[in-house]
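Quick review question:
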C-alpha cells in the first residue's frame, strides 16, 4: 500500500503538520496540512511580545459537505498547545488511515 506508507513515513519535515478531523454529523474523515511557518498568525501578549501562534482553518468532508472550523493554538516553539474543532473532532493519523481503508463501515464509533 503505497499511499499508506507515504502517509506515515514521508511527512516528518518540521514545517508541515498534518491535521485530521472526523465530521460530527456523518463521520467522514478529512486530512488537511498546515505549514507551521507560512500559515500561522502571531499572537501577542499584553506587553506586545510574541506569546505564540494560532490558525483558524476551514475544511469540508466529501460526504455531507458540512463546513468544519478548526482553531489551533501553538506556543512560541510552534508546538500545538490547544485545539478546538467546531462541527468535528480531532483524530489521529492512525484513525484517519483506518477510516479511509474502510470508509463505509467506520462511519460512526
Ligand atoms: Zn460530514
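Suggested answer, residue by residue:
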Amino acid at each position: 500500500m503505497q499511499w499508506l506508507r507515504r502517509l506515515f513515513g514521508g511527512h516528518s519535515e518540521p514545517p508541515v503538520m498534518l491535521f485530521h478531523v472526523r465530521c460530527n454529523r456523518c463521520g467522514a474523515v478529512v486530512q488537511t496540512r498546515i505549514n507551521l511557518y507560512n500559515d500561522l498568525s502571531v499572537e501577542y501578549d499584553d506587553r506586545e511580545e510574541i506569546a505564540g501562534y494560532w490558525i483558524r482553518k476551514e475544511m469540508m468532508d466529501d460526504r455531507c459537505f458540512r463546513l468544519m472550523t478548526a482553531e489551533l493554538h501553538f506556543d512560541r516553539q510552534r508546538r500545538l498547545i490547544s485545539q478546538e474543532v467546531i462541527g468535528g473532532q480531532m483524530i489521529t493519523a492512525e484513525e484517519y488511515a483506518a477510516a479511509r481503508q474502510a470508509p463505509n463501515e467506520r462511519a460512526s464509533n
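Why it works: The two ends are 25 Å apart (CA to CA). DSSP finds two helices and seven strands in the chain.
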